[in-house]
């Protein structure tokens, strides 16, 4: 659960509740995180124009799963709410589609999903800038249209996070060292204002 309170902070405080994981392996388990503490209830302060909230996922049984967003109709209608899947690159407006179906192998990761809350007049589409990502030799090449401090995450075809680092992405071409075996990978580059996922092939 995610809630907003005027005097709450982004740190662990009285509005947060630690996650207690269930033993039933048939259900996906979600959590947020604050100060390295995994949370079942995440209390946050007020939103200005945009808020990005990483949502962790623990899966014990591979397969197709569903996420359902409840009580979204009570949330401030001046804001749009999106679910971003870093593995597929898909963005879902949960006001229009309250259930999201996805596949996952066994995992325990804080980087699979993000809840993105943005003012309706701003729109998440306006926050995403053009970016091209591909592999060349032992580098990831990122061609960006603007400069931003970003987090790069690389996933294998099972959805497992195999690489993560924070880098300064500059406008134009950026070469990021990345050595791995041949195969297909998904590369996610995210910042405070944008989120891009591309498939790359290392031959």
Notes on the structure:
- It is a single chain.
- The protein has 203 residues and is mostly beta strands.
- It is 0% helix and 57% strand.
- The protein starts with a strand and ends with a strand.
- The strands form four sheets. Strands 1, 2, 3, 4, 5, 7, 8 and 10 form an eight-stranded mixed sheet that branches. A four-stranded antiparallel sheet has the order 14-13-16-17, with no helix packed on it. It has a three-stranded antiparallel sheet with strand order 11-12-15, with no helix packed on it.
- The radius of gyration is 17 Å and the shape is globular.
Structure described in brief:
0% of the residues lie in helices and 57% in strands.
Itemize the secondary structure elements and their pairings.
Elements: E1 2-4, E2 17-18, E3 29-34, E4 37-44, E5 50-59, E6 63-68, E7 79-85, E8 91-93, E9 99-104, E10 107-119, E11 131-136, E12 139-144, E13 148-155, E14 161-169, E15 172-177, E16 183-190, E17 195-202
Parallel strand pairs: 1-4
Antiparallel strand pairs: 2-4, 3-4, 3-5, 5-10, 6-9, 7-8, 7-10, 11-12, 12-15, 13-14, 13-16, 16-17
Radius of gyration: 17 Å
Structural class: mainly beta
List low-pLDDT spans.
Answer: 122-128
- Which percent band covers the strand fraction? over 45%
Q: Tell me roughly what share of residues is in helical segments.
A: under 10%
**Biggest sheet, in brief?**
8 strands, mixed
**What is the helix tally?**
0
Principal-axes geometry comes out as globular
H and E order: EEEEEEEEEEEEEEEEE
Number of strands: 17
Global mean pLDDT: 83
- Could you tell me how far the N terminus lies from the C terminus, measured between alpha carbons in angstroms? 42 Å
